[in-house]
Specification:
This protein has 185 residues and is an alpha/beta fold. It contains 5 helices and 7 strands. Helix content is 39%, strand content 24%. Helix 4 crosses helix 5. The chain is globular, with a radius of gyration of 15 Å. The two termini are 17 Å apart. Bound molecules: ligand AR6.
């Protein structure tokens, strides 16, 4: 199950794709890990990345050490189909006011896209950051992620291809309904 949205920016037309699937199977230049600031690959997306990518990813994370909430750092993808993993530090929802949690989630998405560009990569797959162990409400996360990606694509001069890979059909529908309204398909 998937749908595509086209985001125009002058001469460029970027693609935002929403799909249901397992992010560790994606073949984009980078996949995003829903990470913690200690850079320890735990359960959920991180656990799947560790299992399929191999221990090299955790070793590279250990070298980096830690990062801030809202930040993003890159490692290789080990044995994954994707050659790179961008570790995005989403907020633990209940640790912040709703507004601050939204700002942190938005920053983690924006910084992931900046890291992608800084490394001269052009395609990326995001999971629904912070909506599992970190408890961020999914509808709100969809609004923040889609509006942040839209804003970024409308201002970048690089041709980028962005996807959001949702684990369940239910999550896919939540995100797709937001995209349909927000991006007016
Ligand atoms: N592919 C796509 N989406 C997935 C997959 C997968 N293989 N597995 C889970 N999801 P989470 P967080 C969805 O908990 O909330 C870890 O221990 C899941 O259904 O992975 O940011 C880390 O090490 C949910 O919607 O990330 C951190 O400590 C979304 O991905 C902490 O959890 C995010 O769920 C991060 O928590």
């Amino acid at each position: 199950m998937e749908s595509q949205y086209f985001i125009k920016n002058g001469e460029l037309t970027h693609i935002l794709k929403l799909m249901q699937g397992d992010i560790t199977e994606q073949e984009t230049d980078a996949i995003v890990n829903a990470a913690n600031t200690n850079m320890k690959l735990g359960t959920g997306v991180a656990g799947a990345i560790r299992r399929k990518g191999g221990k090299i990813i955790q070793e590279e994370c250990n070298q980096i050490g830690s990062s801030e909430v809202g930040g993003a750092v890159i490692t290789t993808g080990g044995n994954l189909k994707s050659k790179h993993v961008i570790h995005a530090m989403g907020p633990i929802y209940h640790q912040y006011s709703p507004k601050d949690a939204e700002i942190h989630l938005s920053n983690s998405v924006k910084n992931s896209l900046i890291v992608l560009q800084d490394n001269k990569l052009s395609s990326i797959s995001f999971p629904a950051i912070s909506t599992g162990n970190y408890g961020f409400p999914k509808q709100k996360a969809a609004e923040i992620m889609i509006s942040t990606i839209n804003e970024f694509l409308k201002s970048t001069l690089n041709q980028l291809s962005v996807e959001i890979c949702l684990f369940s059909i239910n999550d896919y529908e939540i995100f797709n309904n937001v995209a349909r309204i927000f991006l007016k398909k």
